[in-house]
Structure formats: C-alpha cells, structure tokens
Design goal:
The protein has 16 helices and no strands. The chain is mainly α. The protein starts with 38 loop residues before the first helix and ends in a 9-residue tail after the last helix.
Amino acid sequence: MGGNSFRSSRSPAGPIDHAACAIASPPILHEPAFPERPLGGRIRHFLLGISADHASCTRRGFVVTERSRRERLEEIGRTFIEGYNAALRLGDPETMTPGFGAVAGELEGFAYEGAAMGFAVVDLISPWPRRRFLRFVARAARRHVYMAHVGAGWALARTSLRLAPRLGPLDPLLRWLVIDGYGFHAGYFHHHDAIDRQRRPSVVHGYSQNVFDQGLGRALWFVKGADIAGVTAAVRAFPQHRRADLWSGVGLAVAYAGGVGAEELAALFSAAGPYRLELGQGAAFAAKAREGAGNPADHTEDACRVFCRHDAAKAAAITDLALEGLDVTDSAAAYAAWRANIRQRLGASPDKERPG
C-alpha cells in the first residue's frame, strides 16, 4: 500500500472530539447481554469467529515468566476476542453498547477494538458493504474512536490491505491507526516473521512502514510478556532507523495495557535512552484514548508520570495542543507532524522533572 492510498475525509485541524466522532476464566462479555442472534450472525460466527484460546500466551508462543503478567495479557486478548465475536453474531453496530456493560471499565476499549474488527471484516468481504465500521465509529464507538480504528487494521490483516477503500472515507489522521493495527496483528500472530526475522509485508510502502512499526512495537509488549529486558533486547535488535517507531509503540502499549509497576516503568524509561520522547509520545496517545473514552486507569497515570513527566490529563492535553495549526492536506505528513509536535512539547519540560 502506498503511503497515501487511503481515502480520507477532510477535517479541520484541532482537538479530536471523541464524543463527536474504540486465560482460564469466565467470558468477559456475557451472552444474555445481547439480543438473540439471527441466522446470518450464527453463520458469520461459524465462518469467521475466533476461539478464546487464541489469547493464550502458550498457544501464541509468548514467553511470560510471571503469572500476573500472563493473566493480564490473556485477559486483554480474551476481551478483544469477545468483542470481535459479538460483532459477528449481531451484525448491527447499534446493538453493541448494552453488552459492553459487562466489561470492566478500563478493559472496555479492547472490547470495542475487537468489535470494530468484526464490523470491518464483514464490510470488507460483503458484496455490498453497509458501512458497518463507519456506523460503529460514528455512534456506539464514538468514545473509543482510537481503538476502533486500530481494530479495523486487524480486519485488513485478515483480508487484504488493498481492500482498505471499502471501509469508506476515514479521518485524515486517525486512519493511520488502521495501519498501526495492521502492524500489531503481524507482530501478535506472526512474531517469528515480523519480530524475529524483522520482515514487513511487501504491500506496506512509504510512511506506512513507519506506522506499521508503531503497531509492531505495541505487539512487542505482548510477545515478550511485558518483560522489560526482553522488550528492550528485541527493539535493539532492529536496525536503528526502525527503533524510534518501535519505542513509540512500546510506550503506548505499556501505558494503555499495563502489566508492570513503578520500578519496571523506570527501568524501561532508562532503557529507551535516546528514544525516551518516543516512549512518552506513545504514552500520551494512550492517555488521550482513555480520556476520550472516560475510562482512566492507574497504570496509564503511572506510565505518563514516568514517560511524559506529566499526569495523564496533561499528557492527553498535549496531544490536542500538538494539533494546533496542523495542515491535513498531506495526511502522512500531518500524522508525522502531529507525533513530532507531541514529542517537542514533551521535550520542552524542565529536565529536573525527568525521573531517574
């Protein structure tokens, strides 16, 4: 895919209004919370559904040495899968919200991410797409708009990146999160190729390669079992020109998904070395996603204080300030500039505030 091959809608630069725009335990989403499944939904689920055991670290080949981290990462995976399967069963974006009441607040975004993947998959393979994904983003998933776009990237990874235009006109900035999701999927499901062999798909070109690596960096957090040494070694094994984007993805994953405490956060910040601002930029994105969704998490707050040198509210505000004066005519350049502006603002904080 070329660096600017997505169709996009034009929108003025300015703060993104989320309200105007997403393992052995019981299921995260409970079947009674949803309406009765129609026949079409049962067929979609039979043909396209994903089993909950795909979230197992053992099945994925992830090395996770600490039980609490394994449970956390697998719980996130199950929540995503439940959201995805629910979307396939129901087929109608407007029926999703009631069922998500069974999801713990700070995990809700993962369910919406999965549901977005489900609606996008159906859009991509249907003869006459009904814009399910865009309807989901515009209504039920308005608060989780970041996570929803990432979920659409999973759908393209399961079908073809060349089908992206079938999703419809996407926001000129947030559409890049679709490629981020595509990169995460590659790392999560094909880590031997994407991480160990450091291969990118041949269809990813131009600036999309950078965004692919941002998603791949997020996947590293899961593949390496939230282990600081393992994540650091994996990033450092990549060529230098890919490390900045990978560290950004790591920062987003740590801040949004969690899994470690203050000591590990400080160790990761130190290990990032010259890429600390990238780590912080990723954490700021996580803070903004949670702010828009109204589902704060202690681990996001902790990560922002270490990586961004600000609390989560300030880190989220910085992502909005970084949009000021942004020209979205060139979508790729605008997205890169947005991220660079965030790093610049984070770097302007007094050095004395930087954790050791």
